[in-house]
Design a protein that fits this description.
Radius of gyration: 22 Å
Helix content: 25-40%
Mean pLDDT: 85
Number of helices: 9
CATH architecture of the largest domain: 3-Layer(aba) Sandwich
Number of strands: 12
CATH topology of the largest domain: D-Maltodextrin-Binding Protein, domain 2
CATH superfamily of the largest domain: Periplasmic binding protein-like II
Structural class: alpha/beta
Length: about 290
């Protein structure tokens, strides 16, 4: 980069928005700008740094090696600036934010979201509800949560998409599929639609099964899988190294598409908007 080049924070914020969403259009929407305006800013930033920051792909963009390096620096620079601005504000963001997070992301993604959010907005009180996400949209609609992340087996093109995290068949590394035998299943409790979809998928190919374990928590399902007791269904990003993903080659049918979405209540606030941005940023790292 030439010594005379100047990086303004607006370019960095635009870069971070596109990197977070993995898509120029969605990044532009989050900034309330047009796609062309954002594309121009990204091009300007790449020209100033004399490097390519994004790889253009059929369904969006991904960061190059240079882009990954810039993201770390840009997050630090923008974060420091935001913290400085907040220190001089007469009215720092405060209040209460109530958020729902699927149980399976509580030990990985949630800590990262909370660490980033509380560092930026220490005056905000945060309430988190972890559990099966199927009921979250209704809870938000009733006004009991301000926003929530939920797994949706609907169309990936629908609004509010955070990431695509397909559901997969999972077993322990030592599990061996034996043709004709009933598959031992570990399933979520009866209030979860994925339970019905899992059973329907097996019945659709005529695969016999037997339910040997039920749980309301992901930790319970993972324990049954890890010990070799049963085969289960988990989001791909939550599969642990000790587990093995089963595919059609192992005799397991394809499951419905699944995406994670962010649903928000009608009544917003600066604190809720800030948490929504932190959630989008936290899940974007799973792409």
């Amino acid at each position: 980069m030439k010594s005379s080049a100047i990086l303004d924070t607006d370019l960095l914020r635009t870069f971070l928005a596109v990197a977070r969403h993995g898509n120029v259009t969605r990044g532009a929407e989050s900034l309330h700008r047009t796609q062309s305006a954002v594309s121009i800013q990204i091009k300007r930033l790449e020209e100033r740094l004399a490097v390519a920051l994004f790889r253009r792909e059929p369904r969006g963009v991904s960061l190059t090696e240079a882009g990954e390096r810039l993201r770390s620096a840009a997050e630090r620079i923008v974060g420091d600036l935001d913290q400085t601005l907040r220190a001089f504000r007469a009215d720092p963001i405060g209040g209460l934010v109530r958020i729902g997070i699927p149980d399976e992301y509580g030990s990985d993604v949630l800590p990262r979201i909370l660490a980033n959010f509380t560092a930026r907005f220490p005056a905000v009180e945060v309430f988190v509800q972890c559990g099966l996400s199927e009921s979250f949209p209704d809870i938000v609609k009733r006004g009991e949560l301000d926003l929530a992340v939920f797994a949706d087996p609907g169309s990936p093109q629908s609004s509010g998409e955070l990431i695509q995290d397909p559901m997969t068949w999972v077993a322990s590394r030592g599990y061996r599929c034996r043709g004709g035998e009933a598959v031992p299943l570990a399933l979520f409790d009866r209030s979860c639609s994925w339970r019905d979809m899992t059973i329907e998928a097996l019945e659709g190919i005529g695969q016999p099964y037997r339910i040997v374990f039920s749980s309301e928590s992901v930790s319970g399902i993972k324990a049954a899988i890890a010990t070799g007791l049963a085969v289960g269904v988990l989001a791909r990003s939550t599969v642990e190294n000790s587990m093995h993903i089963l595919t059609r080659q192992h005799g397991f049918p394809r499951l419905p598409e699944s995406v994670l979405r962010l649903v928000r209540g009608r009544a917003g606030s600066p604190a809720v908007a800030a948490m929504a941005a932190a959630v989008e940023e936290g899940f974007a790292r799973l792409r």
